[in-house]
Amino acid sequence: MSVTAVPVTPFESLEDHMEPLGEELDRIRAEIVAARGAEDARYIRTVIAVQRGLETGGRAALAVSLFPPAWLVGTAMLTIAKILENMELGHNILHGQWDWMGDPAIHSTTWEWDFLTPADAWKHTHNHLHHTYTNVVGLDRDLGYTILRMSPDQPWHPVHLLQPLYTALLAPVFEWGIALYDLEADAVPSGRKSVRAFLGDLAGLARKAVRQAAKDYVLFPLLAGPSALPCLVGNVTANGLRNIWAHTVIFCGHFPGDVQTFSYEEEQLDGETRSQWYLRQIQGSANIEGGSLLHILTGNLSHQIEHHVFPDLPSNRYAELAPRVREICARHGITYASGPLWRQYASMWGRVLRHAVPDGSRKP
């Protein structure tokens, strides 16, 4: 299925649709909340069991990875385990999608993920700032992660000429980029964040980084004995591949050409209604089309639109919600950006290249 070719629809032309849009989406949300139950709980517990089985098997194979087949099998299993933990488990559990179960082992307040940035720091920059101010220039720091220019409303600087290069270099070390980004060091000079708070967050990141490095790059290689070096290489490879995949999914869900950005004046954010918030989430996100395996490996963030509209609903519900949200958008004349991975990836790179230069900047 091709990328939906619907013209960008300005807010003011949708005034008559605002109230019905919000009411329809609210009804869908209430329906899913009421329907959550044993099947959903079984899903997330199954994913946890599969993820832990893959990680255990992968680490066991890497412990004897002097034999090349064991290295390939172990690295592949560990890579998939880390992707599942990061995308379908960590991201979604930290959104509170499973808090309704009342299980302290699968709760947003207790989960610490296998990712460099501490969970609390990520929940602030992602759950609060990004999901509240999605694609509003100057308020959503995830719009370019403070180093990329992804909208004509962002001022251009000569350094942006290099953004295609550092976008590519960011992918294999994405967890480090996100961890440094979550420190919000850029907020210290303006006084939006105190030096004391910054230093506290930096200390928290340092503690998490030491634990992560000790686990993957010291403990397990040492336990592998004669296989220490290939085990270390396998761990580095698994983390790098997980980072590249996370970078790909996140960028394809937020930066294809059909995705809109907004200025504060356009949005009149102070008086934004629930319906207007829904509309901005739809227009500021893009879906990736594919099969069930793709959806699971993306943490169901291939349904990025549905995730932004309903960020705290169980991720396994997004596939059934997507056709309904798409139909609502079509009926109200709202852009629903969706396409296969290769097309969204190419469109994302088109945006990176277009906004790297001053004379090629225009709203997508």
UniProtKB/TrEMBL annotation:
Look up the signal peptide feature and give its range: none
- Superkingdom of the source? Bacteria
Coiled coil regions in record: none
CDD domains reported in the protein's UniProt record: Delta6-FADS-like
- Transmembrane segment boundaries: none
InterPro entries reported in the protein's UniProt record: FA_desaturase_dom, Fatty_acid_desaturase
The Fatty acid desaturase domain sits at: 70-338
Name of the protein described by the UniProt record: Fatty acid desaturase family protein
Q: Which organism is it from?
A: Streptomyces lutosisoli
Q: What is the lineage of its organism?
A: Bacteria, Bacillati, Actinomycetota, Actinomycetes, Kitasatosporales
